[in-house]
Amino acid sequence: MAARTFRNPVISGFYxxxxxxxxxxxxxxxxxxxxxxxxxxIFHSRDLVHWQQIGHVLDRPSQLNLDDVGCSAGNYAPxxxxxxxxxxxxxxxxxxxxxxxxDINFVVTAENPAGPWSEPVTLIExxxxxxxxxxxxxDGRAWYVANARVAEPxxxxxxDIWVQEFDAENLALIGEKTLLWNGAVKGAxxxxxxxxxxxxxxxxxxxxxxxxxxxxxxxxxxxxxxTGPYEGNPRNPILTHRxxxxxxxxxxxxxxxLIQTKTGEWWMVALASRPYGGYYYNLGRETFLARVxxxxxxxxxxxxxxxxxSEQVAPDLKPCPVxxxxxxxxxxxxxxxxxxxxxxxxxSDFWSLSQRPGHLxxxxxxxxxxxxxxxxxxxQRQRHIDCAVRTSMAFAPQTPNEEAGLALVQxxxxxxxxxxxxxxxxxxxxxVIRRKGGEEETLGVCRAVGVxxxxxxxxxGQDYAFYYAATPEAWxxxxxxxxxxxxxxxxxxxxxxxxxxxxGSANGVSSESVVDFDYFEYLSLDR
Length: 527
Description:
Blueprint: E1 5-7, E2 19-23, E3 26-30, E4 36-37, E5 39-45, E6 52-58, E7 74-83, E8 86-94, E9 104-110, E10 121-124, E11 129-136, E12 142-148, E13 160-167, E14 172-181, E15 192-199, E16 202-209, E17 217-223, E18 231-232, E19 239-240, E20 251-260, E21 266-273, E22 286-295, E23 298-301, E24 311-313, E25 328-329, E26 342-343, E27 351-352, E28 360-363, E29 376-381, E30 387-395, E31 403-411, E32 414-422, E33 428-436, E34 439-448, E35 452-460, E36 463-469, E37 476-483, H1 489-492, E38 499-505, E39 514-524
Antiparallel strand pairs: 1-24, 2-3, 3-5, 4-26, 5-6, 7-8, 8-9, 9-10, 11-12, 12-13, 13-14, 15-16, 16-17, 17-18, 17-19, 20-21, 21-22, 22-23, 25-39, 27-28, 28-39, 29-38, 30-35, 30-39, 31-32, 31-38, 32-33, 33-34, 35-36, 36-37
């Protein structure tokens, strides 16, 4: 009988910096969310392969202030741990240093990982400390480990990895910091993402280094004491794809976390990307799974392969499939599904599921996608290389400033808007606008008529196409074979993936107008 296999990534789309813990037979995983709200999506699995989102760690504005946070700032690299019946999450909120605001390292707790989670407790509030983690030792003590810049780095990108005791009852740091390690490669960029584990009485410090792009890597050191000194694995890095070239189908693996199952197996979750259409990855950094075996006191990632694979043998756990996301959201529930996100913290009720039942209503406001603000945008991740999105909307703009429709967003200066607006003759038109590097260009326009309007976007690799219909399925192409590479971080910069969603704006002026979306359909077209 052939061995059971699974496909990577196990969580597709912009779900980066995975961290994992185990409570009984259940696994829980969280990822970064950066400038998007709610913050820190949390997933559940019984077999490490099938994951279902059960909520967000930070789902209330009181927990998460993303006001004025720039693109690819916000919630960085959290860690989740379970100890003595309590779940802990530590993370970093990166805030605008140019405004004299410090980064915050915080901790939240919960009895139930689906929530509610507590209000954050600030542990550190200074710039440059990121990627915190917790380690609970078997002697009852707990430890907080993170990385930090130093005043006079010996080379650019240098970081210290350090540890400090953590009072898990009172949620406070105590004692002095101890320097542990600064990475395996001298001169390497950004030693970060530290996690400590204890295996057979030995402490292991797992980190990422080399930066989160092509040179990303996972390295490891060990010590008989939690506070060191740590010796690096002579076979470091234990995971990287930097030597496999730009054409390899999976790139930049790193920022890993380890877990042991009840059957004794060890597994690693890590971020990585899938380039397509060249060295571009519109889906961002995704969550991958790899087998780990211990040899000579060190972990080996995917023995015999040494890299992340698109398909590999599954864990020795009973398969537990989970329901897939519905292809179509008809907005007939009292709350938005967990897949939906806002850009930064929503400070007003600009959206509603109740004002027109069976519809998502967005109120047009002055804020634009190009602003560092909270625009009237509700989106979800692009999760497939080939996909299609459709929606139906009712919209009657009153002034030339007003527009509403679909948006494909990488950041404020790199996105597509597929919206309806008033034409110069007072009629209604559908138009596709590309914003690239802060400059806007109209790629296509067609006349829009009627009360209901239908919009469709299809992505086949890096070719995106936009269609309008005044009646169902009577599609008129507006812009075809549009190059989608501006939605990739190698072009746009930053750390996020593409978000696709519904949008409306009055572009700098006040408005009383609204747009009603009847449904939003997302279909995978992957072959």
